[in-house]
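ok so i was messing around last nite and threw this chain in just to see what happens. nothing serious, just curious
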Amino acid sequence: QVQLVESGGGLVQAGGSLRLSCEASGRTFSIYAVGWFRQAPGKEREFVAAIRWSGSTTYYGDSVKGRFTISRDNARNTVYLQMNSLKPEDTAVYYCAADRSPGYGSNYYQTPRTYDYWGQGTQVTVSS
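result:
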């Protein structure tokens, strides 16, 4: 089993920045990749970004490219999501998720069912 805990959410003004953290514990050696998703009220869960647990491959959703950066610190078993130039439409609950199977390609990592473990989520609210 893998446990995921998100932190770093909060209230920020449009144009501001936040950094989310996702700390993994348990059988972290089984993780192949970690993704971030978000879900706003009344909307479907949306892919934000993903990163392989080893190597440098990253993937981003179209709505966050150029503004968000995903990174990881394997020593701390933590994945980060640096969010810059935030917009009101970025308001959502942000979830991190871990994939325990090898996969490849943006379509694979953008799909929620790819992931085996999910955190509880952290609220991000961007005011205009």
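not much to say yet. The two ends are 40 Å apart (CA to CA).
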